[in-house]
Each structure stands twice: as C-alpha cells, then as structure tokens.
C-alpha cells in the first residue's frame, strides 16, 4: 500500500469515527469521500488486493441482490468486502473497501449506482457486472434511459475483461450487451408466468432498427420474451434460465438451469417472497455467486437465512395484534410490484409515502404510471393513507383511481394506525427518502407503542359532489384520442387522460377514450380531444416517423379548431424541426415553432400565468430543447420563475394556438390544474355546438396539490 493510500485510509477511519460517534450518522459515504479526495485511485489500489469481485447494478433490486450474493460468496467462510447498506456511489464502494481492509477480504461484492459504473468498473476490474434491469427512475437526475445505457456500455468498454451477466428478458439490458465486446452471460425466466402485463413499459422497441417488438409473453414492464418482426433481433439464448416457476405457500419455487456447458446443471430454489421480481433477484444473486467463484451448494441455506436490508419487506408486530409491512418502491415498476404484493394478501389498509427530495427526483409525474386501479380487485379495501412531502399529489392519484374508500392525509405510520382496526395489517409503501423514516418509526413503535382503546373509524368519503352532476346531452360521446401511449409515456400522460375522462364522467358528459398505437391507422374525423405525450428520444423518433405519413390528418384537425394537448416531445413534434443530439429531425409543420438544442437542461418546478384559467398553472419541466415561437404564435403563458419555460430567456412557456395547448409542463399537467382540463373540455363541447357552463366539482384535494407545487416553484 503506497503512502498516499495509507494516509487516505487513516483519514477515512477518522471520518467514520467522527460521523458515527459525534454526529450519530451511518457513515456509509463520508469515509470514502474523504479517501477519494486524498487518493482518487483508492478503489483500484484496494481492489487489487481482492482475488475476485462482482458488481451489481440496475434500477431495481440492487441492494437485495448484492446482499444475497455476498452471503453466498462468503458461505464457505471467505471474508467478503461489501457495501451492504446500499451506499452505491463511488464513495460508498471506497468506504466498504477501506472499512474491511484489516480483515484482508479475498472477495468483493459491490452494489453500484448505474451512473457510477463508468468510474468504478475500470478501477475495480471485476469478474462480472450483473445488470438487473433498466426502468425510468429520477428522470431529473439520470435523464432518459438512453443516457443510462450509454454510461453502462462505456463502463464495460473501459473494463473489457469484465463479463456482463444481464437480464436478457429486458431488451434495454440486452441492447447494452449487444453493443459491447465483453463476454455475455444472459439470464431470464424461460416460460410465461401468467401475470398481467403492466399498463406502462419503459421501451418495447428494437435496439437495432427501432421497430416495435413482438412478445410471446410479458412478465411485467418490458420484461419478457421478445423478437423484432422487422430485423429479427430477439432475446438471446439464456445461459441461466428460471423454469418451473410456481407460486407456493408464502413464496416462489423454481429451478435455475445453468446451460453454459454441454450438460444442463439444475439448481432448485425456494423463496419466502411471492413477488416475481424476487425470482429475478434471487436468480441474479446465484449467477453473481457462480461468476464470482462461489458455489451453489449452500445457496438455499443462505436464502433461507437472508433478511432484506434496512427493513425492506419486513413485517412488524405491534401491540394489540396490529402488524405493519414495510416496502420500498421508488419508480412505477417497483410500485407496481408492491401493488401486486398487496393484492396477493388481499390487503385492507394501505399507506403510501411520497417524497420529492434530491435523492428521489423532484418530478412526481411517475406516480400516474402506477397501476393503482388494480387495487379495485381487493375484496374489502377500507382506507388509503398518504404521507410524505408530496402527499397531496399522491392523494389526487388515489382519488382518480376511484378505489371506493376514504383517503386520509397523514404525517407518519402512527397517524395511519388510527384508521386501522385492531388486529389488522397495514401495508406501507414508501419511496426512497421516505422509507428510512418509516422504518425508524416502525422500530420505535414495535418496542413502545400501545394500541389505543378506541380507533378512528374511517368513513366513506366522496371527493365528488355527485348531487350536483347534470347530464349533458350529446348525439355521441366526446371522443378522446390518446396518440401512441405505447411509445410516448415518459411523463405520466395517463394522468392527463384520467383527468379528462373522469371530469367528464363526474359531470355526466358521455366520453370514450381511444388509443392509437404504433402501426395503427390514425382517424381524427370525429375526434374531440387529442393527447400527444412525451417520450424518450428513440421512442419519440419512432413516433415522428409514424406521423410523417399521416401529417395531413393532424394538420386538418388543428386547422378545424380541434382540441389538442401536446406535452414535451409531442409539443416539439408539432413544429418545423427539433434537434436529437446533433441530428435535425423534421417536424410535422403544424405549428410555427422551432426547437434547437441547449447546452444544459431546464429542470425544475414551474408556474405560469395563462389566459386559459384564472389560477397559475403549475408543473415540472425537464428538457434540453429551446423552443422559439414564430411571429404568429403566442405562448400558453408567462413564466413566474425566471429562467424557465420554452427557452429560459423570453419568459414564455408553451404555445396556445386556437384549440391547441403545447407545453413542456408535466406533473402531469391536468390533474392538479383542473382549470386547464375544464378549458379543454369546454372548448371541445363548443366545437360540437354545445355551449354549457361546466358544473363545478369538489376540487379540494387538487387545489391542495396545486398549492404545494406552486409554493415549491415560487420559493
């Protein structure tokens, strides 16, 4: 060990002592941050002392998979260096190496944040990088998934001897493996599981030619067995395959087939967890163990003894027969897996905690891609409590799911327990920074809480003043057309559709929603409201090509006063052109706008004043494009936050062109801006010759969410 590294280690030891003893904090990242300041190459220096190592990355499941793999690698008594607490940035991995150096570990097993793989892999040079999955997550930090893919691919190029063991059921992971020359070890579930596909996936487009993929079956999200009908790209042959997947009492049983040799080696696995995501995590941990030089012999014993880190998936027994299950979910796919858990347990009480701190991502649009509507299947859902810094947004989401039970705003778990009957179970789902306080509170309640003698009985609450509903006579329902939700679904546009359709239904205005998917004919002849959302660059480009041949239909609809809401990428598409990197993409020339590329992204909460509604419109922007309106166009509104809007300079945001609203605002825009929704509905009715004053609705919870967003944007 060279002198600089030795000094860095001693400084890190001092930082850990001060952080844990004086500040009473975890000390997971601080020691490594100090060490890296003194010796930037310390990961490589200490990593060289390891005989072998593996790194685990991906959006969901990193901490669980890493912990299981580390236990399996150490099952025969070998010391393992591991960042078990989930401190997965460069500093957390450095901390783990510094802290365990005295034990002289022979093996390393590290969780790594996706964006830090490019800094860690070239220095650590692990035997394998285990890539679990890629889902949208913290778009204001990570950017679109394309960027995450580029980073991981570059990390592998800089560590050419590192094998990539990847979830081949995820085309986003398989496309990375196809781009690099590293040895590939694909794994996946090699049979249909019969589960419902998620409403939203993060990409089902071919990595080679961008055509829509065909699926034999889908497990969830974009995970399944796929093939491109255009160029033939398909899920690779699996080196490790889960087969005979069966949901048994309390968990899954399945076989993992090691197909790398001439003879298939089969390992039988039993889990205590009934989420299909755990089949992937457990299989990935076994693969990591084998690639890291471990043995499968003791894997089942390790799995039987394993306890999820930091209270994840733990059941807390409380006084009075109460119990609380704590679950972490930080993106739509993760939340949907937890919703499946609640359904499997036929839950009656649910508490959802939503924060928007830096580590969570400040954009909460993603909650509209959670399939909360599936909770309608529960036989007796009695109450949904919502907490966290953005609890009002979550309350609006729950309201529009129409679950038929009360919605309660709460401060914490103990507050939620007031609405739970004695002896019942409360299911808690919290996102990233909301989860640790939930666990800390549950640890306290488990040791000191006394069940109250009398609970608050939650009574059914209607957020809709149905007695004020007046039916509007129409010769045919309002036709709401959602364009390409299979491709443009990045910013919770399902919430915009829900806002339009529910606010019509609550007023007795007949309406129907039609989806136009990729490859389908576009018919706007009787459309009343059209929604064109935003998507990742690759998906947006596919939609652009799709619409080029049908441009006149959209142009005619707009010229005829048609009502259209275009969000972000959809807004850019309506103009003359937009930039995708350095490539100029021809737009649809429907509006006189042009979008160039900026050097930085405009990211943050925004508020604008607009003639569309009396109250300010609030939302969240995240775009690199700089849009300039032509002389004949006018903005949707004027930005109340300096440096935001179309281009950050002229003070305008969006465009208002007859019945067209184009905007960079998501959140999504309509649920917490009901005035905008009602403007669109009223405009569509007038175009049909029906000039009525819309019945006021009970928008208390929407106004609360609006006011929170307004405060964040303007302070």
For the largest beta sheet, what order do the strands appear in spatially? 2-3-1-4-5-6-9-10-11
Largest β sheet strand count, sense and barrel closure:
9 strands, mixed
Kindly state the mean pLDDT as a whole number? 90
Report the structural category.
alpha/beta
Residue fraction in strands: 15-25%
Number of helices: 21
Head-to-tail CA distance between termini: 50 Å
Please mark out the parts with pLDDT under 50 across 5 or more consecutive residues, or reply none: 460-468
Q: What is the strand tally? A: 29
Helix content: 25-40%
Q: Which of globular, elongated, flat, extended, rod-shaped describes the shape?
A: globular
> Radius of gyration from the CA trace?
26 Å
Summarize the SSE layout with pairings.
Blueprint: H1 3-22, H2 30-38, H3 42-47, E1 52-57, H4 62-73, E2 80-82, H5 90-99, E3 107-111, H6 117-124, E4 128-131, H7 139-142, H8 145-157, E5 163-167, H9 171-179, E6 184-189, E7 214-220, E8 223-227, E9 240-248, E10 251-258, E11 265-270, H10 276-291, H11 299-305, E12 314-317, E13 323-328, H12 332-344, E14 349-353, E15 383-387, H13 391-401, E16 407-409, H14 413-417, E17 425-430, H15 435-448, E18 478-483, H16 493-505, E19 511-516, E20 529-532, H17 537-548, H18 551-559, E21 563-567, H19 569-573, E22 577-580, E23 583-586, E24 593-609, E25 617-629, E26 637-639, E27 652-653, E28 655-657, E29 660-663, H20 674-687, H21 700-714
Parallel strand pairs: 1-3, 1-4, 2-3, 4-5, 5-6, 6-9, 13-17, 14-15, 14-17, 15-16, 18-19, 18-20, 20-21, 21-29
Antiparallel strand pairs: 7-8, 9-10, 10-11, 12-13, 22-23, 24-25, 24-26, 26-27, 28-29
């Amino acid at each position: 060990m060279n002198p600089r590294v030795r000094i860095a280690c001693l400084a890190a030891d001092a930082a850990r002592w001060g952080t844990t003893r004086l500040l009473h904090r975890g000390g997971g990242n601080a020691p490594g941050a100090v060490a890296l300041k003194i010796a930037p190459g310390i990961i490589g220096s200490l990593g060289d002392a390891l005989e072998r190592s593996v790194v685990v990355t991906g959006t969901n499941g990193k901490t669980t998979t890493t912990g299981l793999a580390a236990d399996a690698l150490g099952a025969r008594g070998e010391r393992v260096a591991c960042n078990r607490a989930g401190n997965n940035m460069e500093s957390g991995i450095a901390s783990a190496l510094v802290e365990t150096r005295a034990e002289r570990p022979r093996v390393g097993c590290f969780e790594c944040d996706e964006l830090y793989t490019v800094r860690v892999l070239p220095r650590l040079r692990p035997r394998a990088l285990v890539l679990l999955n890629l889902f949208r997550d913290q778009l204001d930090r990570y950017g679109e998934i394309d960027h995450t893919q580029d980073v991981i691919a570059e990390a592998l190029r800089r560590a050419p001897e590192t094998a990539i063991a990847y979830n081949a059921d995820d085309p986003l992971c398989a496309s990375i493996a196809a781009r690099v020359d590293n040895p590939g070890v694909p794994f996946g579930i090699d049979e249909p599981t019969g589960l419902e596909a998620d409403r939203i996936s993060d990409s089902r487009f071919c990595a080679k030619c961008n055509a829509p993929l065909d699926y034999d079956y889908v497990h969830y999200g974009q995970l399944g067995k796929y093939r491109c009908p255009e160029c033939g790209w398909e899920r690779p042959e699996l080196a490790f395959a889960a087969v005979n997947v069966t949901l048994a009492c309390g968990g899954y049983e399945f076989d993992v087939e090691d197909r790398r040799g001439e003879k298939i080696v089969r390992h039988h696995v039993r889990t205590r967890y009934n989420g299909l995501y755990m089949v992937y995590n457990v299989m990935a941990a076994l693969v990591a163990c084998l690639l890291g030089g471990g043995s499968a012999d003791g894997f089942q014993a390790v799995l039987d003894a394993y306890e999820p880190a930091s209270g994840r998936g733990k059941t807390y027994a409380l006084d009075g027969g109460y119990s609380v299950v704590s679950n972490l979910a930080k993106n739509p796919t993760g939340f949907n897996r937890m919703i499946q858990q609640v359904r499997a347990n036929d839950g009656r009480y649910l508490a959802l905690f939503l924060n928007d701190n830096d580590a969570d991502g400040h954009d909460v649009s993603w909650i509209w891609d959670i399939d909360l509507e599936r909770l309608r299947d529960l036989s007796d859902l009695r109450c949904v409590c919502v907490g966290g810094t953005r609890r009002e947004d979550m309350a609006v989401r729950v309201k529009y799911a129409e679950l038929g039970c009360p919605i309660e705003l709460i401060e914490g778990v103990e507050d939620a327990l007031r609405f739970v009957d004695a002896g019942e179970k409360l299911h808690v789902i919290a996102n990233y920074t909301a989860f640790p306080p939930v666990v800390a509170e549950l640890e306290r309640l488990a040791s000191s809480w006394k069940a109250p003698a009398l609970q608050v009985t939650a009574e059914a609450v209607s957020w809709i003043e149905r007695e004020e509903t007046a039916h509007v006579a129409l010769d045919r329902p309002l036709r709401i057309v959602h364009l390409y939700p299979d491709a443009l679904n990045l910013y919770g546009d399902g919430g915009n559709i829900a806002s339009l359709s529910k606010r019509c239904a609550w007023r007795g205005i007949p309406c129907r929603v039609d989806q136009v998917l990729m490859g389908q004919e576009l018919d706007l002849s009787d459309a009343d409201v059209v929604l064109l959302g935003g998507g990742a660059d690759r998906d947006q480009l596919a939609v652009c090509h799709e619409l080029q041949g049908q441009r006149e239909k959209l142009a005619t609809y707009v010229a005829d006063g048609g009502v259209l809401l275009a969000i972000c990428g959809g807004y850019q598409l309506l103009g003359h052109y937009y930039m995708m990197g350095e490539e100029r993409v021809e737009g649809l020339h429907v509006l006189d706008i042009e979008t160039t590329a900026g050097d930085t992204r405009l990211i943050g909460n925004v508020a604008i004043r607009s003639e569309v509604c009396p109250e300010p419109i609030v939302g969240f922007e995240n775009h690199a494009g700089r849009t300039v309106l032509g002389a004949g166009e006018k903005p949707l509104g004027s930005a109340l936050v300096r440096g935001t809007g179309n281009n950050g300079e002229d003070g305008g945001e969006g465009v208002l062109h007859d019945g067209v609203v184009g905007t960079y605002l998501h959140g999504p825009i309509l649920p917490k801006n009901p005035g905008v929704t009602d403007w669109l509905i009223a405009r569509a009715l007038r175009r049909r010759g029906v000039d009525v004053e819309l019945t006021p609705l009970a928008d208390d919870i929407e106004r609360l969410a609006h006011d929170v967003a307004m405060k964040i944007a303007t302070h």
